[in-house]
Design brief:
heterodimer; A: mainly alpha; 9 helices; B: two-stranded parallel sheet; disordered N terminus
Chain lengths: 226, 233
């Protein structure tokens, strides 16, 4: 027998004492709607503000983050029993950084124009708190299938929020979508919207819409039960 | 579910009280060697994976970079019939690269020629600080008249949506053709052949482009003239 090796195991269910495990689709749907990274969890605000001035940038950033979320979630979950508690943050960051590097290289080789436009923001995904947050709070506690579903959901939620934000900003700030003029030559672009303050304003508008929507839903649910 | 399935559980004893945390739960020390081994294996696996993908994507990335330079040269020289490459070695231009020097690492000047073999313009790479980071351009000009034929952005990290208009705004880019260096950037350009109109919201990026073009012409014109005096064309 070798000497006993203590490895912190995180096999406990996500919510201790929860009656039954949630269905798999729920893990995906939660990231898109109820726990949307941008609109509800307010995570990853730096890329949200920095690259959402054109729709193409917003979508590319979202898809790159989706790739890293799914890849790192899967590997953190697969190796969760072998990663000692003391070095888990270092290991998660190493896994995340590896996938970010892969995403950067693959993007540069397949879509060089988009890779050029996003510049340093793709490598900066490493510093996005959403990645480490999901690794620590979810992927390290569940099996690889649920971790995959969660990464997919969070990634889709991030992509959708960034797309909505960047569509709004590019449309008002440049009169175009995906670089194609849609509002015509008579439209005077609000240059303000593609600058940093416009990002805060657009995010505020998006959060306002989300808040109104959720309040209305809660109201309807109350009326239905009353 | 127990957290420790391997090995016998640690029995608290009087001789090992320091290992017990205040809450009395069993906890074992993890040896530093194990932590080191975990990180070493993870680091090695990550490194191998990154190198593998790097080698896989390198040809595509290099091909794109080469095609980009060729396309930029053709664009700024307005589709010449033929493009010759001159090399800048030892403070002078030479038609042939001396043996032992790497083509990729040498400074090059591209000469555009028409059907008769006459020089229509030259193109050089030039880089200087832009608004945030280095701005790299391919600059085309006619050494005989000092007239700019055009520029092409090779690499930029200007503000998306504002500064990057130096690359995307065709109205700004096309006004350089025919302008005689040194060019001046103004808010409202007249028909003066030495003036171009800067972009609203991207004044610093616009001025950076103008500065790079002016400096490139000033730097390369004497080199071309010295090359001509020695009989080159």
């Amino acid at each position: 027998m070798t000497a006993p090796i203590a490895i912190q195991k995180r096999d406990e269910p996500f919510v201790p004492g929860a009656p039954a495990p949630a269905p798999l689709w729920f893990d995906v749907w939660r990231g898109i709607a109820m726990e949307n990274p941008v609109l509800v969890q307010m995570l990853g605000m730096c890329p949200t503000m920095a690259v959402t001035n054109t729709l193409a940038n917003g979508v590319a950033m979202g898809v790159a983050t989706l790739f890293v979320l799914v890849g790192s979630g899967l590997f953190v979950s697969l190796f969760r029993k072998y990663i000692a508690n003391e070095v888990r943050i270092t290991s998660y960051i190493l896994i995340i950084a590896t996938f970010v590097t892969l995403a950067d290289l693959i993007l540069a080789a397949t879509f060089p124009e988009i890779s050029k436009a996003l510049g340093p923001f793709i490598p900066l995904i490493v510093a996005n708190c959403l990645l480490l947050g999901r690794a620590e709070a979810f992927a390290a506690k569940v099996g690889p299938v649920r971790a995959l579903a969660d990464g997919l959901g969070m990634g889709l939620g991030f992509t959708l929020a960034l797309s909505a934000l960047s569509a709004l900003r590019e449309l008002l700030g440049n009169g175009s979508l995906f670089g194609i003029d849609v509002l015509g030559p008579k439209f005077e672009p609000w240059v303000f919207m593609v600058m940093p303050p416009g990002g805060f304003l657009a995010l505020g508008i998006l959060l306002l819409i989300k808040g109104w929507f959720m309040t209305r839903n809660a109201q309807r649910a109350r009326e239905a039960t009353a | 579910m127990s957290g420790h399935q391997h090995g016998p559980p640690v029995v608290p004893s009087a001789s090992t009280p320091a290992l017990l945390p205040p809450n009395g739960l069993e906890q074992k020390m993890v040896s530093s060697w194990r932590l080191l081994a975990t990180l070493f294996i993870a680091g090695a696996a990550a490194g191998i994976l990154v190198v593998f993908v790097y080698r896989l994507t390198l040809p595509a990335i290099q091909k794109y970079a080469g095609a980009k330079i060729d396309g930029a040269v053709r664009e700024v020289l307005r589709s010449p019939a033929k493009v010759d490459t001159l090399y800048f070695v030892g403070n002078k231009l030479v038609a042939k690269l001396p043996a032992g020097l790497d083509v990729r690492e040498s400074t090059k000047m591209f000469v555009g020629r028409n059907d008769q073999g006459e020089r229509t313009g030259v193109a050089v790479e030039a880089a200087e600080p832009g608004f945030q980071e280095e701005l790299r351009l391919m600059v085309g000009f006619d050494p005989a008249t000092r007239a700019v034929t055009g520029y092409h952005v090779l690499d930029q990290k200007e503000t998306p949506g504002l500064g990057d208009k130096i690359e995307k705004d065709k109205a700004f880019g096309t006004q350089f053709a025919g302008k005689v260096a040194p060019i001046k950037g103004v808010k409202l350009a007249t028909s003066d052949p030495g003036q171009v109109q800067t972009i609203t919201g991207a004044t610093i990026s616009s001025r950076a482009v103008i500065r790079i073009i002016n400096n490139a012409v000033a730097q390369w014109l004497p080199r071309v003239q010295a090359f001509e005096q020695e009989g080159g064309k």
